[in-house]
Amino acid sequence: MCPFFYRTIDMQYDFFSPQQIHFGWGRFAEVGQLASSLGTRGLIISGSRSLEAKGVLEELQQFLSRANISSEFIHTITNEPEVTDVDQVTQLLRDAGIRAGDFLIGIGGGSGIDLAKACAAMVTNQESDTVLDYLEGVGRGLKLTQTPLPLLAIPTTAGTGSEATKNAVISSYSPAFKKSLRADQMIPNLVLCDPQLACSVPPEVTARTGMDAITQLLESYISCRAQPIPQALCLQGLKLALPAITEAVENGTSRTGRENMAHASLLSGIALANSGLGMAHGVAPALGIHCRIPHGLACAVMLPATLKTNLSVCQREYAEITRFIAPDLSLSEAEADQYLIDRIQSLNDRLKIPRRLSDLGVTPSQIPDLVASSRGNSMSGNPREISDTELTQILEDLL
Ligand code: NAD
Predict the structure, then answer these.
(1) How far apart are alpha carbons 369 and 372 in whole angstroms?
(2) Predicted structure pTM score
(3) Where does ligand 1 bind, in terms of residues with CB under 6 Å?
(4) What does the pLDDT read at residue 11?
(5) Are residues 341 and 311 in contact, defined by beta-carbon separation less than 8 angstroms?
(6) Was domain 27-193 assigned CATH 3.30.1360.70?
(7) In the chain, domain spans
(8) Where does the pLDDT of residue 139 fall: very low under 50, low under 70, confident under 90, or very high at 90 and above?
(9) The domain 203-397: what is its CATH number?
(10) Sequence-ordered alpha helix ranges (H) in the chain
(11) What are phi and psi of 164, to 5 degrees?
């Protein structure tokens, strides 16, 4: 039987995705022609010094210029974006004199694209000078009332799917929080995804960002807010990503590896924007702010425990996924569930993702803060409630 028909899910839904997605190996060269639908001046925010060093930003400006689009380089971010980054870069944009015909270009991994998404929103919403006041769960809870500046997103890592989501994740270390700026209008207007741009991502970063995409695909599929279109996308993404991630890590210039990971990452972003996530993405921001663990790595370490914790309510979903990704295996439902959990653990092992949080420097004294900081939008999508006591136990078991 086709796995799509196993599950009874709500057949009333809304679906959000970028208005235009242009995907393909080598299609970066089309950026000028594609961007001309957005405006006449592109303001560039980048998420990687390597891209700069390789001449990719210079090339971007040349491609734009050939399409009669002027461009201005604004900023490169080298960390996961913080409140001060958003506020400062928003000011740089205002200093550039925003005018009709301007649009933003976010090129980079999740950090660069999130910074561009947040600044696109903040530059047109001026009720407060700081993005803090607009973040979920902290600040003054202000809402975006003005449409953000048009945004072209060009992902260069394959992991977050931020090019297709409604939110930008913003950190602060004092006070410690990692929260989202979120609004339906924040989905980038245009996505240009050229998987070739990711060929320069080092193996370790390819592994951890790729595991973020895989975590998003699994968590969206089992989320308590799961929906039919995202579920179909998740299955395709997982089928492609599970073999492709090792290929991309072990052979960074592999076209198949990079293409399949970039596509899976994009699908994971569309899925999470519509269905939400779960426990792994609930805890990952806490690991980011309290223990400085990069986002993808935090997701990867938490994924096996998340699958085990949710097994009691997700047996049918795990079996559906297993039957789709490994159709030749004839397994009982219980065997199929275990297969999925074992496959993720062995993938993590092959990618050298540590099994224990202590291997990443987490200490027992940090657990209360980690638990307290795990209660965000992502945790609310987990398929079952997890109390603070249970989460404490889960984290202690992972130390
Ligand atoms: P990243 O953007 O921080 O990039 C990781 C590293 O890769 C950086 O050092 C960067 O300079 C480098 N890099 C990027 N592209 C490169 C290239 N082509 N060649 C060589 N090096 C390159 O990492 P990420 O995992 O893509 O993004 C993480 C951020 O995204 C976190 O803040 C996370 O919370 C956020 N996130 C956002 C969403 C969303 O929906 N908005 C979803 C998931 C995660």
Answers:
(1) 5
(2) 0.97
(3) 47-48, 50-51, 80, 108-112, 114, 156-157, 159-160, 162, 165, 167-169, 197-198, 200-201, 205, 209, 212, 295-296
(4) 83
(5) yes
(6) no
(7) 27-193, 203-397
(8) confident
(9) 1.20.1090.10
(10) 31-35, 49-53, 56-66, 83-95, 110-124, 203-222, 228-250, 255-275, 279-291, 295-325, 333-350, 367-372, 388-398
(11) -120, 10
